[in-house]
Amino acid sequence: MGSMFRSEEVVLVQLFLPTAAAYTCVSQLGELGLVEFRDLNASVSAFQRRFVVDVRRCEEVEKTFTFLQGEMRWAGLALPLPEGVLLAPPPRDLLRIQEETDRLAQELRDVRGNQQALRAQLHQLQLHSAVLSQGHGHGSRLAATHTDASMERTPLLQAPGGPHQDLRVNFVAGAVEPHKAAALERLLWRACRGFLIASFRETEQQLEDPVTGEPATWMTFLISYWGEQIGQKIRKITDCFHCHVFPFAEQEEARLGALQQLQQQSQELQEVLGETERFLSQVLGRVQKLLPPWQVQIRKMKAVYLALNQCSVSTTHKCLIAEAWCATRDLPTLQQALQDSSSEAGVSAVVHRIPCRDMPPTLIRTNRFTASFQGIVDAYGVGRYQEVNPAPYTIITFPFLFAVMFGDVGHGLLMFLFALAMVLAENRPAVKAAQNEIWRTFFSGRYLLLLMGLFSVYTGFIYNECFSRATAIFPSGWSVAAMANQSGWSDAFLAEHPLLALDPNVTGVFLGPYPFGIDPVWSLAVNHLSFLNSFKMKMSVILGVTHMAFGVVLGVFNHTHFGQWHRLLLETLPELVFLLGLFGYLVFLVVYKWLRLTAADAASAPSILIHFINMFLFSRSATNRSLFSGQEVVQSALVVLALATVPILLLGTPLFLRRQHRHHSRRRQLVEDEDRTGLLDASDVSVASQGLDEEKAECPGGQEEAEFVPSEVFMHQAIHTIEFCLGCISNTASYLRLWALSLAHAQLSEVLWAMVMRVGLGLSDKLGVAAVVLVPVFAAFAVMTVAILLVMEGLSAFLHALRLHWVEFQNKFYSGTGYKLSPFTFAAEDE
């Protein structure tokens, strides 16, 4: 955990991997997750790299995997998690996996195709059987209709013959989807002008759809018509509606025979379909067993080839050269892993550090407790390499500032119990596998919520608030009886004065401060809100100035670590003098007034606000007495001292850097003159350059000289000075949000109690009625407490605490301009 305060030392290493063992070495590095590879082929297209063919083969296999996964989802089967640790397979296994995968995919395609064909055929047979089985009813009605119509239209005398004497009644039978039946019937009647008789009936049993597998109802129809042209129209219309048309015999005996034959074919087809589905389940079982480990292995293999594509090839084509970032503490593990992986090749892989002028990535190791706090810092910006990390201090300051705005024992306890339940259940598979985004957000910050709830309970005890109600844990420090006995309160006095004041100057009225937190008697006072406003506002200023001063002090560790000693005198010291000389003095006045003045001096107590205003105006107020002797002189001296630090802060660093740059330029010119005279031989030059490289390797990116541009340096320092000086004023005022949010939370809790619970408690004096009424009232109170006070108010306090850390605290010392170390690892592939 030592790396929590500052990022670990990261160096650039060069790996020489034998060609025969390169795949094995990189695979082992992926299992360990120690290094981040640099792309040495950035100028080479992705299609021209050495292992692009292998990557394409892996992608082809992954496409087949996608097809197999789709078949598994279609069958309603879930893929199990792979068991154990699966290593990246050897390259020769890729062909075997690809062949077996293609064979399984082809079997699934064939079996699935046969199943679909058999289901479609069975569906046709079932529809045909339904049409024939219901054809008797259709035929009876049609025959009756035809008989009645013919008897009405039969002439009394037989016609000797005519052009229509050979016409006969024809039938068209089939099935159509129910939602198309009405439109079909309407179109048939209009197109054929009534020269037909159509009958539609719904099937008695639902038939399984061959595509979706869901049961569906069909409409069978039987159409009788006269004339070949009418028949052609009917067939075209049924084709347009995608109707299933089947042959329909005129004789009932022929229809019964055809129906028996269809039922026998359906029974045989169902047996064949059952065997097909059993074979399909066997194939899916093999896929369910083999696919999960294959997916992990192919993903790892593809990742290895993509990493190898970032390596360059040596001139002899006998090894691959890679560059990677690695933590210094992991170098022995890296060397050992490469030796073990390349032992079979006969040539050991080589690792050595190389100098680099680029800024290394930032590596801060976290655990399940510190990960959420580090995430808060990284959301603002990843720290520069070996910059002071604010996360260890955020573990305390963030929950505390949140609790200052959210202080309530009851609300904090509910939040603490909710977080504690997540912490206790964090190892359960069902909890880890939950996919709800809101739940995963809460679960990832469970330890943060735990501390936020715990600190809220602590500040709730200080405020003496539990669901907006005060609790008398200790005896009150105020005595009403002593005030009543010594003040002579009579019945007439009490009748004329509904509000009574407790005078702490009266003997026995004020017995001493409350042991912990605010005295519960203040909850009964009319000036309760004024008292809390004064207390919380001053507390916010004290916490804010302390927090900002701590941020400035943390900048000292950055300057000393990077060897920027001039910044201690030219930046950090002026910043502390400016901040503490003005706002630190304000904090001193608040604390001094608390400790120096007593209740007897309350009537003539001076105003700190007026003193602070007079401090900047270099004036004094006759009606506002001084807190201590010589206060005006001290205030004037502090203002002058603070103003004197502004030009130091503005010009100190640029002038020093300019002088340093000139000094280095002169030294460089002298060295170049000596080189021209030949005082240094070639060997000395090489030794000196080698020593310089080693120094840069020890401190990568920190000692090289950048081009000095005076205008940019002055502009940057001017922006920093203006931001700090104005920020001290605005940031101090920004910390008053602690007072505002705390007041809002307390008043909202009070309103919720008064509008819900107090009304429910006063509805009835009878015990039974009150118990029945309180059930829905308490349910409403609980729901609104969780929804409004815990969720909405908690989110508001969280965002304000986040702003105080990002803007008011971290900008005093934290740049956040780095980038994370993203090691090459298979951890994501295993998941």
TrEMBL record:
Give the keywords, sorted.
Hydrogen ion transport, Ion transport, Membrane, Signal, Transmembrane, Transmembrane helix, Transport
Kindly list the GO CC terms recorded for this protein: apical plasma membrane; late endosome; lysosome; nucleus; phagocytic vesicle membrane; secretory granule membrane; vacuolar proton-transporting V-type ATPase, V0 domain
Gene Ontology molecular function = ATPase binding; proton-transporting ATPase activity, rotational mechanism
Its signal peptide is 1-22
Which Pfam families does the record match to this protein?
A: V_ATPase_I
User: Which cellular compartments is it found in?
Assistant: Membrane
Membrane-spanning intervals of the chain: 400-425, 446-463, 514-532, 539-557, 577-595, 602-622, 634-657, 768-792
Origin superkingdom: Eukaryota
Q: Briefly, what is this protein's role?
A: Essential component of the vacuolar proton pump (V-ATPase), a multimeric enzyme that catalyzes the translocation of protons across the membranes. Required for assembly and activity of the V-ATPase.
Q: Return the similarity comment.
A: Belongs to the V-ATPase 116 kDa subunit family.
PANTHER family (UniProt xref): V-TYPE PROTON ATPASE 116 KDA SUBUNIT A 3, VACUOLAR PROTON ATPASES
Query: What is the protein named?
Result: V-type proton ATPase subunit a
Species this protein is from = Catagonus wagneri
What's the name of its gene? TCIRG1
